[in-house]
Amino acid sequence: MKEISVIGVGYVGLVTAACFADLGNHVTALDVNEERIEGLKRGVMPIYEPGLEELVSRNAKAGRLTFTTSYKEALHNAEYAFIAVGTPSGMNGGADLQYVAAAARSIAPPHHQQVHRANRNRRLGR
Known about the structure:
The chain is α/β, with parallel strands linked by helices. The protein has five helices and five strands; from the N terminus they run E-H-E-H-H-E-H-E-H-E.
């Protein structure tokens, strides 16, 4: 299976990480919010989605899903990195992509050798 890093553990990131882990991949989920990561390590869900707590618990216990605040740890051996950070509304009403850009800079070399980057905000046909 694959080594995957998911940056951001909100609604998109946590569900994505848990589902990839449930498919048998080893997933390291990263967030800069230390309280959120410590809570997840203790089994405290920061969001509610039906079945998510069981999914996270099962995969964490199996060692397929881990949580960290360290980019170095999250990207160690990662083959794929998914950015799933917040994109709040900007002043002009469009998406504020500053957190996506910051995450992308944080996963760019020299921090990591070769990693496939997938951006959930990219729109096809643009």
